Amino acid sequence: MNTFFSLIKKNKLEFFSIFLIILLALCLRLYRIGEFMTFLGDEGRDVRIVRDLITKGNLVFIGPRTSIGDMYLGPLYYYMMAPALFLSRLNPVGPAVLNAIIGTFTVFLTYFIGRKLFNKWSGLITALLYAVSPVAIIYSRSSWNPNPMPLFALLSVWGIYEVWQNKKFFWLPLIGVFFAFALQMHYLGLLLGPVLGLFWILTLLPITKEPTRRKIFIHQTVIAILLFLLLMSPLLLFDLKHQGMNFNAFKMFFTDRQTTVNLNPAKSDRFLPVIYMTVSDLVLARQTMWAPLVSVLILLFSSWVYLKSKWLGSLKIVFVWLGFAILGLSVYKQHVYIHYLGFIYPAIYLLIGAILGFLIRQKILFRLIASVLIIFLFINSLIFSPVKENPNRQLQRTEQAVDLIIKESNGQPFNFGLIAKQNYDESYRYFLENKNAGLVRGEDKIVDQLFVICEDGDGCQPEGHPDWQIAIFGPSHIVGQWQIDFLKIYRLIHTK
């Protein structure tokens, strides 16, 4: 502790700067979080599952289902959510706040690791740009399984760097844990595998003739594998019970490659688009016009820094991290969304921080260039910051709609349906169940009234709609209609 305080005394300005950066990151992520957070069907499904885990002790063996490939993630994210949902008394804002804290902690880690890999300027610049990144803010203020991915990816890569460069083999079991968490946030974490494997081999080769070190290395590797398998075991148990459902989905994803992956990178036409999207969304605050030019400049400057600096090992691991990611994403045939890149968010900012941190320690002209670029990137991110947008208020609107239905149901049981092109009813069900409303699922029993929420505007026609929960109610007609923002709420009864 004395060493820590003495370090602060010697670097007062640096620690004051990182304190302000962390405070800024936290404020940007927590600002009106309850109004900005996403709360649709996926989020409603997640909190329903975690609520039942907390209140009923229903253990969870699988996580969310992937949008492509019909595969299931592991359940670790649900167990991460549980303490936050419990402490917030089942308020969905709790898990969103947890993600904001995780995102802010990731900002601090980029400073710490950037300082270790490069210099203090690189650490501060990396953290500053990550703190104000519009994409990082958006995906740090909602409860969604991909959102913590940057943290676990960063810890995994930092761990293998420590193993490779500093022979700190105690990191290996931790890497097994972090990699399992990363995979259970999103399966694109698989692209971390080649990075970890390559530097594991590069660590092993020089110590093959050192029996003591080799023994420790292998022992720690075995522990890492066992911990990894332990954390992934719920998925194995699920597969054993369901005839290998997940394994078969994985096999289909990689063997039926017409619509999924192209395993020949030379035939891919998506290499440059992936790079441009990465640069535009993460470096240029989602502005696309200058992405090709900035991509070339990053390549040139990073090559120059590699040749001129003493950061060879540090830059190698960042290059390999980004290289495997871009290669993997370029052979993926489906649309690449920006949240898919969560496992390289820190890598992009570490690379930019390395370049600017190197320039700022050179002659006056380069210092001036670096200063202008830092100011530009910082202000650009603030100009296009998502906190300046109007909040979606999805959580509040959902609860208001539920409260209205409870009031208009007059204490009588009701069936419920949702008409929406890009949503499903789990978010509404969460509040209906929590408030002990008279909700009865249509497959369980048909009662005397049906409430329908329409999210599709004026063209919505609930009478005779083919949605299962509406169609199963049978012939009906509207006897009441209300509106909350763009939501239209209908009460229907049976037509005699």
UniProtKB/TrEMBL annotation:
Domain of life according to the entry: Bacteria
All copies of domain Glycosyltransferase RgtA/B/C/D-like, residue ranges: 75-236
GO CC aspect terms: plasma membrane
PANTHER family for the chain: MANNOSYLTRANSFERASE YKCB-RELATED (PTHR33908), MEMBRANE PROTEIN (PTHR33908:SF11)
Protein location: Cell membrane
InterPro entries the record matches: LipidA_mod_glycosyltrf_83 (IPR050297), RgtA/B/C-like (IPR038731)
Gene Ontology BP terms: lipopolysaccharide biosynthetic process
Keyword flag Cell inner membrane: no
Pfam families, sorted: PMT_2
Keyword annotations: Cell membrane, Glycosyltransferase, Membrane, Transferase, Transmembrane, Transmembrane helix
Membrane disposition: Multi-pass membrane protein
Protein name per Swiss-Prot or TrEMBL: Glycosyl transferase family 39
Gene Ontology molecular-function annotations: pentosyltransferase activity
Keyword set includes Transmembrane helix: yes
Transmembrane segments: 12-31, 96-114, 121-140, 171-204, 216-238, 289-307, 314-332, 338-359, 364-384
